[in-house]
Amino acid sequence: MMHPASHITISHPLLRRIGAVGDRTGTTVYVVGGYVRDLVLGTEVQDIDILVMGDGIVFAHEVARELSIGTVVTYERFGTAMIPVGDGKLEFVGARKEKYTEESRKPDVVPATLEEDLLRRDFTVNAMAVALNAGAFGTLHDPLGGTADLEAKLLRTPLDPVQTFDDDPLRMMRAVRFAAQLDCQVAPGVLAAVGAMKDRIRIVSHERIADEFLKLLKVSRPSIGLHLMYETGLMHLVFPEIAQMAGVDQVKDHHHKDVFRHTCKVVDNICATTDNVWLRFAALVHDIAKPRTKAYQEGVGWTFHGHEEIGARMMKKVFQRLRLPHAHLPYIEKLVRLHLRPMVLVDEEVTDSAVRRLMFEAGPDIDDLMTLCRADITSKNPSLVARYLRNYELVMEKIREVEEKDRIRNWQPPVRGEEIMAACGIGPSRMVGQLKDAIEEAILDGKIPNEHDAAMAYLLEIKDEILKKGSLS
Questions:
Q1: Count of other CB atoms within 10 angstroms of residue 450
Q2: What is the C-alpha to C-alpha distance for residues 225 and 186, in angstroms, rounded to an integer?
Q3: Nearest-angstrom CA–CA distance, 339 and 285
Q4: Staple 259 to which of 185, 245, 379, 427, CB 3.0 to 4.6 Å?
């Protein structure tokens, strides 16, 4: 681990070129923030923050000319600029501090020294800088003890946490995310400040909150941050449906497991097998309707009938409120709706038709569904876990067998609507859909193979009866 006043090895070729632009223009520049933190930890990230002792936007244009890049996105209001580079980006900002006057509640942004700029950052582990100019290239500036905190696995704020969070309440979300990402303890005063100031998160845009929440789901063990969100009260404000899953009810000697704790375990389980953040999100919400469907049934115990369907229906409002991209909504709805279905297929008596129907409904997401089902096993009983895993392997064998015979995965109807209209002498209408559905049902029930000629022959066999019924209705 590095220590203050030490040097750090920088291998990224762009950073030496940026330092050279600084030398040519007489500008002192540093690489700061997450890039330095991860460099100290021994990893490199794609996004790089450059701190400029001067005008960040002007310097960004100089760097763009040096790199022969035509795109510079500027944010005049914030005095920042961004240059896309490969899979990442370079962000430039001038060193600054905020100065309040008695007449105004809004601060003036004024130029600052390096130390003053580092003080306004979110956490000490992100408040380190490395010099890029030739004379000092690689010199680490760590006036706030960020390297020591990384070594101690401690998350602290440079200033009083109340002031740090008041400057930008999203930093409360970042605190729980970094606790999980860096697997570190949050300083007691910082955690207390989150609990006291949690209501301030309401002034932050839903888009910024959602972006930070998805970053939490991208770490290897999100449960650390999820538990902190619950304990501080942030979860109740950001994602109340998840907070409501916590707790255990008891009737007589019967109690159910804590759904929130179970869910956190499922999320950690799935993170060990996939980097797909939306599959991880599906793991988070798969039991979201259990609090709404919870009931105690004498002689049976606790039940959650229909929680998979109700949970799927809840997703649209969740996506709308959190401003999540709606392109992912059908995928999440599907996985929540189907997450109990594979276990039903374990029975030896299950027909090929039932397997076909699951494959048809899951489509190309059948493998993700099975990944979710395996992650959903959270029992502490090793023999029970082994049995469930064997059961799911049996289901996968059945799916592979049916797939080999019927090619249901990535289903495409073997007969197009235009062919149905031509064969039946009808125009576009709901009858076309009914005939398509009849062919689909016959394939799923195993009456006919999933082939064009067989489907056309079946269409000619049934069309008159269905058209007759349609004309009478």
A1: 22
A2: 10
A3: 11
A4: 245
- Rounded to an integer, what distance in angstroms lies between the CA atom of residue 130 and that of residue 10? 9
Decide: helix, strand or coil at residue 177.
helix
Per DSSP (E only), the strands in 15-153 are 29-32, 48-52, 73-75, 80-85, 88-94, 96-99, 108-111, 129-131, 140-141
Tell which residue, 131, 238, 90, 110, has the closest CA to residue 176: 238
pTM exceeds 0.70 for this model: yes
How far, rounded to the nearest angstrom, does the alpha carbon of residue 137 sit from its chain's CA centroid?
37
The mean pLDDT of the chain is 87
Question: Which pLDDT value is given to residue 2?
Answer: 45
pLDDT (average), residues 159-163: 94
In this prediction, what percent of the chain has a pLDDT beyond 70? 90
CA atoms of 224 and 215, how far apart (whole Å): 13
Q: Are 212 and 323 in contact (CB under 8 A)?
A: no
Tally of CA atoms within 13 A in the half-sphere of 369 that contains its CB:
24
Query: What mean pLDDT do residues 116-143 have?
Result: 95
CA–CA distance, 240 with 316 (Å, rounded to integer): 15
